[in-house]
Amino acid sequence: MLVLGLDNFSDELLGQLLEWSPTVIVTQLTAEKVNAYGIKIDWVIANEIDESLQSDIKLMPAGNDTLAEAAMKYLVTYNYPAVNIVTDDLQLKDYLFYIDKISLVIFHADKKIYAVNSGFSKWKPAGEVIELLSEPQHFHFSGLENIEGNRFKTTHDGFFSLQFEQPFLFIAEDL
Description:
three-stranded antiparallel β-sheet; alpha/beta; 175 residues; 35% strand; 3 helices; eleven-stranded mixed β-sheet; 2 domains
C-alpha cells in the first residue's frame, strides 16, 4: 500500500485495505498520521527518517523522481503484483509507465481508479456511476447510459462492457 495522502480518505476503508497486511509505504508528510493510527510502516519515501516514528522503518530516497515514481520503481523492481495507492493529489501521469508492470488501484477522494483494457466487463448494480478519466478512441459500450461527458451510469443489475482502441483507459467508480 502506498499512502501519498490521507486528508480525504475514510478511516474505515483504510482499515479494510490494511486487512491484507500489505507492505506499507508512506511519505514524510503522511508518516505521522499513519503512525498515529498505530499502523506498522515499512518504508518512508524521504531523504531522512524522523526517528520518533517507529523502529525498523526503512528509508526510500526519491532522488529526482516524484514520491509516487520512487515507490512504483521499488514495487516493480521487487516484483510486487499489485498496489493500492491512497492520494489527495491525483497525477495519473506518474503511473502511466507502470500500467503493464503492476496492477494498481488508486483511491482519490471518493473514487476508486484503475486502468482497464479494451473488452473490460464488470458486474455492477443498476444506477452505479462509471467515469472515464482517459479520452477513448472508437469507444463502444454496453450496459451503460451516458449521463454527461465521460460519465456513465449502469442501466441495470448486470455486466457493463467497454471497447476502445488504445492500450488502456483509466476509469473511476464511486466508493
